[in-house]
Amino acid sequence: MLYYIEHAIFTLVLAVLISIYYRKGPQQFFRVIVLALKELPGVKAIIDGVLKKEVSSFVKTTSLAQDVTKSKPIVRIPETGISFDDLRQQMKNLQKRDANPERDGNVFAYQYTLHDQNFELQEEAFDAFCEKSGHSVEHDGLVKEFFHGFMHENALNPMIYPALRLMETEVVSMTASMLHGNREVVGFLTSGGTESNLMAVKTYRDMALATRKGIGKPNIVAPITVHPTIDKAAHYFGLDIIHTPMSADFTADVKAMEEAINGDTVMLCASAPQFCHAVVDPIEDIANLALKKGLPLHVDACFGGFMLPWVEKLGYPVPKFDFRVPGVTSMSADVHKYGFCVKGASVICYKNADIRKHQIYAYSEWPGGLYGSPSMAGTRPGGNIAAAWAAMKALGEDGYMAKAKSLMDITTKMINKIKTIEGIYIMGQPCMTAFAIGSRDDAINIQAVADVMETKGWKMERNQLPDSLHCSILPHHAHIADKFLTDLEDSVKHCKDNKALAKKGTAGVYGMMANIPDKGIVTDFLVEFFSEVYKCK
Ligand SMILES: *Cc1c(COP(=O)(O)O)cnc(C)c1O
Question: What domains, with CATH codes, occur in the chain?
Answer without folding.
Answer: 17-71 (no CATH), 156-395 (3.40.640.10), 397-532 (3.90.1150.10)
